[in-house]
Specification:
The complex is a heterodimer of chains A (about 120) and B (about 100).
Chain A: E1 3-7, E2 10-12, E3 18-25, E4 33-39, E5 45-51, E6 58-60, E7 68-73, E8 78-83, E9 92-99, E10 112-113, E11 117-121
Parallel strand pairs in A: 2-11
Antiparallel strand pairs in A: 1-3, 3-8, 4-5, 4-9, 5-6, 7-8, 9-10, 9-11
Chain B: E1 8-11, E2 17-22, E3 31-36, E4 43-46, E5 60-65, E6 68-73, E7 82-90, E8 93-96, E9 100-104
The chains are: A mainly beta (about 120), B mainly beta (about 100).
């Protein structure tokens, strides 16, 4: 069965960095577009970033552009989110999610989600 | 572009709940819906405006026309109490609505 397991969250000070991982299993990871989505405490879902099946195309929410980098390692079936210059407003539960559509498609829905990893940015 | 959702909807058990999501020309886009319960991961309940993933009960249905997409829960059950988010794709970025809390009274 499809499984997505996030890790790497923790408590960091503003300005510091963190790298999140999402280990995928139960499907052909290298064939799927993948996303990161976050939810701040008491807030709604916020899309963060997307990466194409082969890693050649990426895009980001304006709120993280220039600070976050999405990447993937097909050999390890793992998705990453490198976060630098973290701010208190980046505090959230971070989910990775699978997207059956191609990067250039127009459907883009998230059919499987991980359980999330919590990032807390606080001094 | 922003997707506008009402903050909350209340429904009696067995009745129909309608949750709307609005944006300019939203009907020209593919919209999907997620159910999110506290402490759990979001679950896709509708994709491509009206398609129901495997395992989602038939009481969940969707439509999208003009400026409004609608998620309808027919014969609402207590287990349907959750936050519901619409989502669409807009020029290489995904956009979520702010979410609607459905309370089953």
């Amino acid at each position: 069965q499809v499984q997505l397991v996030e890790s790497g969250g923790g408590v960091v000070q503003p300005g510091m960095s963190l790298r999140l991982s999402c280990a995928a299993s139960g499907f052909s990871f290298g064939s799927y577009t993948m996303h990161w989505v976050r939810q701040a405490p008491g807030k709604g879902l916020e899309w963060v970033a997307v990466i194409s099946y082969d890693g050649s195309n990426k895009d980001y929410a304006d709120s993280v552009k220039g600070r976050f980098t999405i990447s993937r390692d097909k050999s390890k079936n793992t998705l990453f989110l490198q976060m630098i210059s973290l701010r208190t407003e980046d505090t959230a539960l971070y989910y990775c999610a699978r997207d059956p559509d191609s990067y250039s498609g127009s459907l883009h829905y998230l059919d499987y989600w991980g359980q999330g990893t919590l990032v807390t940015v606080s001094s | 572009s922003e997707l506008t959702q009402a903050p909350s909807v209340s429904v009696s058990p067995g009745q129909t709940a309608s949750i709307t999501c609005s944006a300019d020309k939203l009907g020209d886009k593919n919209t999907c819906w997620y159910q999110h319960k506290p402490g759990q991961s979001p679950v896709l309940v509708i994709y491509q405006n009206s398609q129901r993933p495997s395992g989602i009960p038939e009481r969940f249905s969707g439509s999208n026309s003009g400026n409004t997409a609608t998620l309808t829960i027919s014969g609402t059950q207590a287990m349907d109490e959750a936050d519901y988010y619409c989502q669409a794709w807009d020029t290489s970025t995904a956009v979520f609505g702010a979410g609607t809390k459905v309370t089953v009274l």
